[in-house]
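A quick aside before the break. I want you to see a complete sequence-to-structure record at least once, exactly as it would be stored in a machine-readable document. Don't worry about memorizing anything.
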Amino acid sequence: MFTRLIHRPLHPGLRRNLFLSAAWLQIGCGLFFAVDVAIELKIFTFHALIESLAVIGLGIGAYLTLREYRSMLHRNTKVERELNVVSGAFQEEVERHFGNWGLTAAERDVALLSIKGVPLADIAAIRSTREGTIKAQSAAIYRKAGVSGRAELISVVVEELISGLNPRGDIKA
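That is the input. The structure line, written in tokens, reads:
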């Protein structure tokens, strides 16, 4: 039970608050110990030296935590932007292929669900039709696309998308 609680993904806002709380806790502990060390500096002992090093360590740890958190936020924002670009490019590529192949509206729906990996029986249920109809529409899609099955259909769309990427990962204009 406790393991599931620890490994369960946290809401991004909660994760952010926990991360910042941990950093502020480190800063608060560091300030407490800094005051304690400042009071004890009148009599320099081995204990005061250890406490001084602990305060320095806490300060460095808090700084690194906040710096890493900021860096992680920047990376996360960049990755989200790139995913949005790729997601939009993928949808555009799919639509372009569907148009080139002359798919009907029903065939477009079936093809999109097939590309997403939805089983034929589930596609039939989603579209409120029989599985035989979906099989017939799939065969028509494969014929129009010039492919032999679902895997090849996915491959054609993904291949075109990948060939549109440059080595930096940006979408070509």
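Two observations worth writing down. The mean pLDDT is 81. The two ends are 50 Å apart (CA to CA). We'll return to this after the break.
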